[in-house]
Amino acid sequence: MTTTTAPRPALRPWGSLAWLHTRYQFLETVRVPLAVIGNLLFPALALVFFVVPQSAITSDPIASTAAVAQLGTFAIMSACMFTHGAGVAEDRAHPFDTFVRTLPARPGPRLAGRVVNGLMWAYLALVPPVIIGATLTAASLTWSQALGAFAMVAGVAVPFTLLGMAIGFAMSTKAALAVVQCVLFPLAFAGGLFMPPEAFPGWLDTISQALPSRAARDLVVQVSTGVEANALALPVLLVWTAVFAALAVWAVRRDEGRRFR
Q1: Structurally, how many domains does the chain consist of?
Q2: Which Pfam families match (predicted)?
């Protein structure tokens, strides 16, 4: 007598799994309208209240474009850190996340889905500031500048995605939300995202140049306006990216060991 065994179901390709996780996480965010509004509204409001009323800025194409670029950088930082900081911590608190992690699939597609989802929200967060800058100020971009700025979004998103993941995998939901806010806004202020670095006192400008937010801001402004960035901006951003990557890897491994040991 021979016995037959049911064929094992074929595993989905890596890319298909990553897209499945991306779609699931995007829909989870959309189902919370307040989270969507928060991602899209604050940078636009900052532009309306702090930039548009200043005719000296709005009438100058370079100053207007730089102001939109600064707040656009903040929008990217905010979307990435809240998506991967508070969002990851909240997901870890749900029993469904534990179930997903027991499935016969490597964690790569799930993490890739988180990164792509955060990048999608980073691009969406830029829509209101760009529309306001184009209609209410003299900001303008050539096609080459627009393509460069579009590509820079991913470059700016990488380090702050890694920082958000480090926070999200290391902390509880309440702690992660508080830490994201306590890290994001000081980095934004000190990085020249709300006030141009030219207005900083000397000591603050020196500290600012060592921050990832200032490095990201300078590179985005350079691509958008042609104004030369600090020569150390790219090395500073790369160093911080490596530091945040190490923190993210440590947090993920710590979480795996703590929950499945």
Answers
A1: 1
A2: ABC2_membrane
